[in-house]
Amino acid sequence: MLSSWKVCCARIPQRWVVAVMGCLAVTNAYTMRISLSLAITEMVKHREPSLNSTNEEVCPSSESSTATSSNGGTYDWDEYTQGIILSSFFWGYIITQLPGGILADKFGGKYTLGLGIFSTAIFTLLTPLVVEKFDAPGLIVLRILMGLGEGTTLPAVNVLVAQWAPPEERSKIGTVVMTGAQVGTIVGNGLSGVLIQNSSIGWPIVFYVFGALAILWFVAWTLLCYSYPEVHPFITEKERKYLHETMNEHTHRQIQPTPWKYLLTSVPLWALLAGKLGHDWGFFTMVTDLPKYMSDVLKFSIQANGFLSALPYVSMWMVSIVASWLADWLIKNEKMTRTNARKIFTTVGSVGPAVFIIAASYAGCDRTVVVILFTVGMGLMGPFYPGMMVNGLDLSPNYSGTLMAIMTAIGALAGIAAPYVVGVLTPNQSLAEWRVVFWITFVIFFVGNLIFDLWADGEVQFWNDPAVYEARKLEIENERRRRIDVEDISLPRETSLDNS
């Protein structure tokens, strides 16, 4: 029985098993993360906006929302409190980024990823109980704990991609894994609306379902996936040899301590971080607050809200898959350098969404046009994945976990700030207030993309290779000693000339 299981598994390229399971890991992470964004619209009491301006700032209720109208939930949380609750996840998320990356670089990604998802699943299952007992303060603490558990996710999967994805497949495999964010957002929003609308227990159902699914994923992950090809029991010798030959040039298991000096002075890395911050501000604004916009501004029902909030991410997921194959084809066939491919795809993934989000804000209460513009805009964010998101792997496969940790920590700052800013700027949930939010997003998108386009690089950096890194250190030390020797030799000569 066991041998037949191994034979069956061996027929499937194990790097793609890791890719699909990695995608499902990110999917689970995002369903658990964003389920609150839709559930909170049913948890809180609905407030009527108090505006001193014209009624054009507030959209009339839609037919679907009128048919299912209610006073909402039992919790009296204002927009500011909701913003704090939605951002609190990232307070914990930012803390475990760097430790998670270092642990994954040192010990492998399997359990660094698996245990992080498992702990987040436990906290997700506890959410309804904690909210009932401790209200908003309890939910804030629980979301911080969820962030701590989930903070290892992206650094760990980046290390796994570095170990399992050959350079010519890096855009495809990296994109398959990372687009779990879109799949999770699609499933999280779409399924949450259906579950809440049709469940007798209401909003708690989403936390029970998504927490349980993550537990099931953890069991399958533990049985099927491994950190490195050389220790995988199901991999064929042909695939193991292929991965060794294609990746041995830049990937080393025995790596030196993280070269922090070179990381912190690397211009391409700083360009990457600036671009990541710009992208994540827009992404987290939409992921966290689009359900609130659909509910409180456009007045969609909870079920319609779930489907329509998911629709832009369906578009984004499809475009990202196509873009990843195109990027790899362009690079492999030398139609475009790796550096130019990363820059061009990142530009499309930043400028496109920025323009269409602004256009949506000026479409007013025309619900059909707004949904179309949001869908097209988020679809154009898809090329970001074969652009900027895999760029850390380009710069340093050996320290990919650490680089992804730094990238995600920088992005988490946007995750903390964006919901808070939305809560502060939209106390009345009016179109004019949200338009300010979208203009801020537009500017941040453009600035981050401009910095990336000017200084990004798609090639492996010298500090990635331990041998090159040590040689560089030795070269610097020898140069320092040479200068000291020259100074020591020249000093007596100058003295003798003075005496003469």
Task: Provide tags for this entry.
globular; 500 residues; disordered C terminus; 0% strand; mainly alpha
Q: How does the helix and strand content classify structurally?
A: mainly alpha
Number of strands: 0
Indicate the mean pLDDT. 85
Please mark out the parts with pLDDT under 50 across 5 or more consecutive residues, or reply none: 65-70, 494-498
| Helix coverage percent | over 70%
- Measured by DSSP, the beta-strand proportion falls in under 5%
- Helix and strand element order: HHHHHHHHHHHHHHHHHHHHH
Description:
Residues 65-70 and 494-498 have low confidence and may be disordered. The protein is built from 21 helices and no strands. By secondary structure, the protein is mostly helical. It has helices at residues 2-10, 14-43, 63-67, 79-93, 97-107, 110-150, 153-164, 170-178, 180-198, 204-224, 237-247, 260-264, 267-297, 302-332, 338-361, 367-379, 384-389, 391-395, 400-425, 431-455, 466-499. The relative contact order is 0.15. The longest helix has 41 residues, at 110-150.
Short recap of the structure:
77% of the residues lie in helices and 0% in strands. It has 21 helices and no strands.
Fold topology:
Layout: H1 2-10, H2 14-43, H3 63-67, H4 79-93, H5 97-107, H6 110-150, H7 153-164, H8 170-178, H9 180-198, H10 204-224, H11 237-247, H12 260-264, H13 267-297, H14 302-332, H15 338-361, H16 367-379, H17 384-389, H18 391-395, H19 400-425, H20 431-455, H21 466-499
Helix pairs in contact: 2-6, 2-7, 2-8, 2-9, 2-10, 2-13, 4-6, 4-19, 5-6, 5-7, 5-19, 6-7, 6-10, 7-8, 7-19, 8-14, 9-10, 9-14, 13-14, 13-15, 13-19, 13-20, 14-15, 14-16, 15-16, 15-20
